[in-house]
Design goal:
The chain is mainly alpha-helical. The protein contains 5 helices and 2 strands. A two-stranded antiparallel ribbon has the order 1-2. A hairpin with a 5-residue loop joins strand 1 and strand 2. The termini are far apart. 32% of the residues are buried.
């Protein structure tokens, strides 16, 4: 019996798309990215030793968090925008609203407002796309 292990491998199949853990997963990953991004917005960029933009003094941790969470954020947001299941889309919606409100609470500068606008747009777009895909699947 395989030593108590299931012979099925984990994959993003119908069963996993519908799991409720998508909502907190997307929320946490989006929150990490926004927290890291706001370090650049609030602290600014400094030229690094090898060129490029590095976070200002006191914001290094935020820079690392943004760096480490960027790819997972891309994956979970893209999944939320392309899935026809509710949990990934609701995760993007919850993350967009929560992170947008957090962004506005941190400041009202143009970069803060643009970041919040993108987040609120994602919060509306993900469930709308999921609803449209589900409706098209039922009709077709």
């Amino acid at each position: 019996m395989n030593g108590g292990r299931s012979s099925r491998r984990w994959s993003l199949d119908e069963e996993n798309w519908s799991r409720g853990w998508w909502v907190p997963l997307v929320l946490v990953v989006m929150a990490a990215v926004i927290w890291g991004l706001l370090g650049f917005v609030e602290g600014g960029c400094e030229r690094g030793a090898r060129g490029g933009c590095v976070p200002a003094d006191g914001y290094e941790l935020r820079g690392w968090v943004l760096f480490l969470a960027a790819m997972p954020a891309y994956f979970v947001v893209a999944t939320g925008l392309t899935a026809d299941r509710w949990p990934p889309a609701l995760g993007v919606a919850a993350g967009g609203v929560t992170c947008g409100l957090y962004t506005l609470a941190q400041g009202q500068t143009v970069p803060h407002l643009l970041t919040a606008a993108v987040l609120f747009t994602l919060a509306v777009t993900a469930p709308a796309l999921a609803w449209r895909r589900r409706r098209a699947a039922r009709v077709g």
